[in-house]
Amino acid sequence: MILTVTLNTALDITYRVRSLRPHTSHRVSDVIERPGGKGVNVARVLAALGHEVTVTGFAGGATGRAIRDRLADTTCVRDALVPIAGATRRTIAVVDELTGDTTQLNEPGPQISPTEWDTFLDRYAELLPSASAVSLSGSLPPGVPVGAYAGLVRSARTLGVPVLLDTSGEPLRRGVAARPDIIKPNADELAELTGSHEPLRATQDARRRGAHAVVASLGAEGLLAATPEGRWRATPPSRVHGNPTGAGDSAVAGLLSGLVKRLPWPERLARAVALSAATVKAPTAGEFDAPAYEELLGRVAVTSEVIAA
Amino acid sequence: MILTVTLNTALDITYRVRSLRPHTSHRVSDVIERPGGKGVNVARVLAALGHEVTVTGFAGGATGRAIRDRLADTTCVRDALVPIAGATRRTIAVVDELTGDTTQLNEPGPQISPTEWDTFLDRYAELLPSASAVSLSGSLPPGVPVGAYAGLVRSARTLGVPVLLDTSGEPLRRGVAARPDIIKPNADELAELTGSHEPLRATQDARRRGAHAVVASLGAEGLLAATPEGRWRATPPSRVHGNPTGAGDSAVAGLLSGLVKRLPWPERLARAVALSAATVKAPTAGEFDAPAYEELLGRVAVTSEVIAA
């Protein structure tokens, strides 16, 4: 199975309103709720691709129960979340029917106690030996040490389990130093890590800091990868219109899926870009359009990148 | 005990953000959750005044559980909510820290099945004989017949239990015809019911339509009452600044409290106005400031109103 870690899970709620106008009252016409947090999104896409996935991290309160109830209904996803005293955060996306634009409200995560963190570390140690790969995704809730991901990367590497890290800021900086197999920063996260706004140079720099492979997501321009086997750029066949929520998580799922199937890097990248574009195209935020994925997969352009000396 | 009916209960959530800007992402700095829906707010104020209160209506889903967990922690409030398959709605109040203004997002209520409605009617019939007064507050969730309040008013009157109705639109129109003891419309609801924008005339007209007593809430101007014993205007001592959320529900609690204590109308109105103003003054939406209430109570002006022939 593939293990996805989401320390800051969320109940993702989407509201549809006619037009959001600050300081007035709105009747919400449509409410959609899904389990969220980046690693949970990754798990959902992996499960849809037919992989067995185990989800771990934290869940608590009524929102945590809502997440677990829904995960129980998802085929191929096993819930190994650790219960906490605090309540799992909500995120609210308010979609404006007139413009299609989205306003996002993100609650802070619940406080994690030292005992809860220790319980998670035990759970992680139990799950790791049977994992074919592990992803560590998203922000850290309050109470989790800033070096948490670095420790989780080291444990995976000790057991020889390939580990992908997708986070930002200081947790990313520390995690990279622990030498993860793959990191998947977006352009901003990569620039923050390396100080360089030039993606080709920055991916190389991030490798020097410890990441074995760096796959940078560049929005509509696709992915740029610097790996021990070479450097590639993978781009979707045409500009895709829609909602980019979850596109990065779908790319992570594509990379993990290709990794456990031992596909060569260009095929992994094609899979990641096609899933990402099929997520932007899907009518529901964070879902992917399966026929669009199949159709896009053969049309992603993957080209070798050469760095001028 | 006093029975409060809330057919469309809600989990009221308050978010604090620095400044709400549509189509951007916001980090919520503070999250407050409370059981809500107008009748639940009335119950909380009655309990704070020392009355034994029973809350009924519907609750379901994770949001319903959150409401019930919190009600269990509230002294003097007994939870007699009827479980439903659907999920209790949320309301989200986004408070802008820069301006203090609030943006409101209200989910629609859950669908109530005919069986659930019948279960509620049985529960209501069980509770009514031991009630000293009953309030019927707020909107009707989908599936509840539009004449619901009219039926609930009739059952209460058959048993001689004083009944207060606080709703709007067609449910109010039908409910008034069933001859409730008190209705508490605001200026808009009263105008919609009677077609008159002149409050003195409109309160008289609402009495002719069936309400024994009409207490119109006129915002900062206080209350205007037309009763079988006379007509009064009750006004707070000075303009109160703050958040008017829940001020109407506090007024209802004041009227019920005065009713079961058999206070004369002017004292009931003074209590209602003081509670209402103390709610506007309280830092948390929907709570009332107890010392402010005590201080305001003696300073509300209640004057007889004479209608020109």
Question: What can you tell me about this protein's structure?
Answer:
The structure is a homodimer of 309-residue chains. The model of chain A has no long low-confidence stretch (mean pLDDT 94). In chain A, strand 10, helix 4 (148-158) and strand 11 (163-166) form a beta-alpha-beta unit. The radius of gyration of chain A is 19 Å and the shape is globular. In chain A, the strands form 2 sheets. In chain A, strands 1, 5, 6, 7, 10, 11, 12, 13, 14, 15 and 16 form an 11-stranded mixed sheet that branches. In chain A, strands 4-2-8-9 form a 4-stranded mixed sheet. Chain A has helices at residues 38-48, 61-72, 114-127, 148-158, 169-177, 187-194, 199-208, 247-260, 265-281, 290-297, and strands at 2-6, 10-17, 25-27, 30-36, 53-59, 77-79, 82-83, 89-96, 102-106, 133-137, 163-166, 182-183, 213-217, 223-227, 230-235, 301-304. Chain A has a single domain, classed as Ribokinase (UDP-N-acetylmuramoyl-L-alanine:D-glutamate ligase), CATH 3.40.1190.20. Chain A starts with a strand and ends in a 5-residue tail after the last strand. Chain A has 309 residues and is an alpha/beta fold. Chain A binds chain B through residues 15, 17, 20-29, 31, 61-63, 65-66, 69, 92, 94, 96, 99, 101-108, and chain B through 15, 17, 20-29, 31, 61-63, 65-66, 69, 92, 94, 96, 99, 101-108. Strand 9 of chain A pairs parallel with strand 3 (25-27) of chain B, so a sheet runs across the interface. Chains A, B: It is an enzyme of class 2 (transferase). Chains A, B: Keywords: ATP-binding, Kinase, Nucleotide-binding, Transferase. Chains A, B: One of its GO terms (molecular function) is phosphofructokinase activity.
